[in-house]
């Protein structure tokens, strides 16, 4: 029986939320931010997925570090959306990216300690 990989599941759920939110931004003609947010927000999960098939522990850590960087970039774009008065905002995405960040940073911490 395979145990659910929570970081993979949460990254996919987050990416789907980002896709929907970016479509909303595009409907409000916020194309540049929507494009940047779509790239960074979906890249988190792509890198987490890549890490699942890493060639070594170092490769795994490297891919998870990239996911962590994409999380920080995504937080930045969401912050701009939250603070821009003319932008719609989805508070749940902020919560989800923060949760995902905690998981990813814990994975990095544990992976480095166990080297």
Give an account of the 3D structure.
This protein has 115 residues and is mainly alpha-helical. The protein is built from 4 helices and no strands. The longest helix has 27 residues, at 57-83. The two termini are 27 Å apart. The relative contact order is 0.17.
**Count of DSSP E strands?**
0
Residue stretches low in confidence (pLDDT < 50, at least 5 long) are: none
Please state the average pLDDT score.
96
Helix percent reads: over 70%
Main β-sheet description: none
* H-E string: HHHH
List the helices and strands and how they pair.
Elements: H1 6-27, H2 31-51, H3 57-83, H4 91-113
Helix pairs in contact: 1-2, 1-4, 2-3, 3-4
Keywords, separated by commas or semicolons:
mainly alpha; 115 residues
Question: Could you provide a short overview of the structure?
Answer:
With 115 residues, this protein is mainly α.
